[in-house]
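Practice record 12: protein with tryptophanyl-5'AMP.
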Amino acid sequence: MNKEIVCSGIRPTGNLHLGNYFGALRNFVKMQDECDCYFFIADYHSLTTHPTPDNLYRNARQILIQYLAAGLDPERCTIYLQSDLPETIELYLFFNMNAYLGELERVTSFKDKVRQQPNNVNAGLLTYPTLMAADILIHKASKVPVGKDQEQHLEMTRTFAQRFNNMYKCDVFPLPQAYNFGSELVKVPGLDGSGKMGKSEGEQNAIFFTDEPAVIRKKIMRAKTDSGPTEMNQTKPVEIENLFTLLKIVSSADAVAYYDDLYNRCQIRYGDLKKQLAEDMVNFTQPFRERIEELSKDEQYLVRVMDRGKEKARESARKTITEVRHIIGYRN
Ligand code: TYM
């Protein structure tokens, strides 16, 4: 029986943080045995922020190292650079021809960017969802492991796939679903008491794989809290709920129950909770740091992984683009 096809990617904008891991990368690792997996480094998407050539190269290399450090195995999945597949760009062009300005302007991530960076509202940002659709559909993937923030992009991918199928009266593309292993899509909170963990939310808001133990402890001890509960069993304010969510991710169920009980009895000391969280974060990230250091020294291996990935990914991409070109009417 054919294995289900899976595809996903992460933008190389810096080191990976725990949001990337629990939203996406952990799923990549879990899926590599049972599915036919394509995992890429989204170095075209990162151009929307105009990185310098050095930063683009360095960050892409870092993501590769961190994919491998997290347990992606180039023998069991295809790991490649988005910019190594020109077929993706051709498919992106085809999707752009049938994507409407209105629907692209309504995408939440686009509206956020317009608000955050009014001086750099470029066409790449507007067509971000068509490029994502091309990434996924170039391999005809049906499952896409991503965090909650990507849900709307997957909805758009289904729209573009369905529109193409309808237009050309074919069923060349599947309708891919956002996926999180065994449960709902996740949103890992940041440390500033508001939204999600993310690089654009500030370095202090995220715990990175590469953070040294002292940095992790400092960030967590500074995480936002309130002055403590005043009523038994009261609802937790968002910044406290966020700390508990992080505790659930890296600590034991016993530790979570222990601090939850103290909170409910108005006896919690946030300093103790943070110390526990910091130590569990340090222990959780330690093996990643060690593997990152080792892999960073093995340039030849990294080059081999990229070469092999490119070859395998292009084989799949060429098949799709040949079929799509024929359907559209480009026939030799
Ligand atoms: P990016 O690079 O912003 O994030 C990569 C992945 O990490 C997830 N993520 C989170 N999940 C839970 N909680 C968080 N705090 C958190 N922060 C980040 C994201 O949901 C994402 O899965 N557009 C994509 C990259 C991309 C892509 C694709 C993904 C390009 N083409 C095709 C899937 C398929 C992005 O910017 O992710």
